[in-house]
Amino acid sequence: MEKLIAVCPILFENKNYEPGEELPTHNTGFVEAWTDNGAAIWKNTEEPRKQMAKAKPVTAPAGRSGDAYPSAGPDQDLIGKLPSRKARGAQPEPAKGRRKSSA
Predict the structure, then answer these.
(1) How far apart are CA 12 and CA 4, in angstroms?
(2) What pTM did the predictor assign?
(3) Cα–Cα distance between 101 and 98 in angstroms, integer?
(4) Is 20 within 8 Å of 45 (Cβ atoms)?
(5) What would the 3-class secondary structure string for 5-56 be?
(6) Which of 17-21, 51-55, 69-73 is predicted least confidently?
(7) Are the C-beta atoms of residues 68 and 80 closer than 8 Å to each other?
(8) Which residues contact 88 (CB under 8 A, 6 or more apart)?
(9) What residues does 3 pair with on adjacent strands?
(10) Is the bond leading into 19 cis (omega within 30 degrees of zero)?
(11) Which of 43, 1, 54 is nearest to 19 (CA)?
(12) What pLDDT sits at residue 91?
């Protein structure tokens, strides 16, 4: 929610508002005058959401290593674990987001 915050001392309706205090907004004429001449600004008072930490694996990858029966060939452990992306010839995923221009 946005609040009108005083930038400099303002005397309004027999009350002196110091810089950083919230100003009343019931009189739209004064609100326009304060914002136009820079005596007050609109400020968003909502707290930004905190970014959550991303999980990192702490233990060994799941699955049991060993030869598959019938054997799929040399150096291929196919018991419960996928081969690496390079070993199975998987294409890299496209980059997410836009690239910055070099201009």
Answers:
(1) 14
(2) 0.45
(3) 9
(4) no
(5) EECCCEEECCEEECCCCECCCCCHHHHHHHHHHCCEEEEECCCCCCCCCCCC
(6) 69-73
(7) no
(8) 82
(9) 43
(10) no
(11) 43
(12) 79
| Residue 19 confidence class, pLDDT cut points 50, 70, 90 | very high
* d(C-alpha 77, C-alpha 63), whole Å: 10
CA dist., res. 87 & res. 76, Å (int): 9
Predicted pLDDT of residue 46: 78
Q: What backbone torsions phi and psi does residue 88 show, to the nearest 5 degrees?
A: -95, 5
**C-alpha to C-alpha distance for 36 and 49, rounded to whole angstroms:** 31
Look-up: residue for tokens 């991303």? 54
Give the Cα separation of 16 and 20 in Å (integer): 12
pLDDT, tens digit, for every residue of 76-90?
555 666 667 777 777
